[in-house]
Amino acid sequence: MSDRKPAGRFLDAAIGLLHRVRDEEADAVEAAGTLLADTVVAGGRLFAFGAGHSSLAAQDVVYRAGGLALMNLLAVPGVVGVDVMPATLGSALERVDGLASAVLDSSPLRAGDALVIISLSGRNALPVEMALNARALGVKVIGVTSLAYAARTKSRHASGTFLKDHCDVVLDSKIAVGDAELTLDTVPAPFAPASTVVATALLQAVLATATAALADRGVEPPLLRSGNVDGGHDWNGRVLEQYRDRIFYRY
Fold first, then answer.
1. Can you tell me whether residue 80 is helix, strand or coil?
2. What is the distance, to the nearest Å, from the Cα of residue 57 to the centroid of all Cα atoms in its chain?
């Protein structure tokens, strides 16, 4: 019997969402992992981007123990995280036309690379423009978003499109509009968001798929180890040096 206290209800809701993405997004996860493996084998570079709290899932796969060393963060000043003051500025920047173009123009992204874009709603100008322009450069795009937003909200991009419309692979996080899993009669608004839990799990599933795909092709996956285990720093040093031309968070 599940715990009906708020903590138990939230964990049940999160577990339910994870079961859904496991069962309903398996093909998309496989396709995304294969795309990343293809990119690595072809000599391409890997990037991840997310705005606001969506950036947490992007950051989780960069310079990560147990993760692929080749995953780089594509950072947009004032948008990655909530450290900008005031925090509301980050939300405003997501709606600015042209910002993604300026970022891509000054980024190391090039044809043959792969970019993961995480955006819960997928409706703001920044993620839509980022995906659209990246593909125009010859970059493969994987989108992590909630398709419910595309069905129930309006795009904030001039094209009227959503992130999902400009991706090679789309992963649906299944998060309901509003990103709040719980309600109580004594609380005036829904609460307890689960989008970070699900987006992070989806991306780790994709990277696990990519890692296994590389090994199946006889390619040693460029994995990082924890610096808190014996030999971890030496291992990571060798990997970072071997792939220094595809790693941008070290230099």
1. strand
2. 5
- pLDDT value, residue 2: 46
Q: For residues 109 and 117, what is the distance between their CA atoms, to the nearest angstrom?
A: 13
Which band of pLDDT confidence, cut at 50, 70 and 90, is reported for residue 77? confident
Could you tell me which of 34, 56, 43, 214 has the C-alpha nearest to residue 142? 34
The amino acid present at 54, given as its one-letter code, is S
Amino acid (1-letter code) at residue 179: D
DSSP codes, 186-224: TSSS-B---HHHHHHHHHHHHHHHHHHHHHHTTPPP-B-
Integer Cα distance of 26 and 85 in angstroms: 39
Torsion of CA 56, 117, 170, 111, to 10 degrees: -150
Please state the length of the chain.
251
Q: Where are the beta strands (DSSP E) in the chain?
A: 46-50, 71-73, 114-118, 140-145, 169-172
CA 45 to chain centre: 15
| Contact assessment for residue 210 and residue 216, using Cβ atoms and an 8 Å cutoff | no
Q: Which tops the pLDDT comparison, 85 or 5?
A: 5
Query: Which among 31, 34, 25, 63 is positioned nearest to 47, based on CA atoms?
Result: 63
What pTM was estimated for this model as a whole? 0.94
pLDDT bin (cut points 50, 70, 90) of residue 3 is: low
CB 125 within 8 A of CB 96: yes
**pLDDT tens digits, 184-216:** 999 999 999 999 999 999 999 999 999 999 999
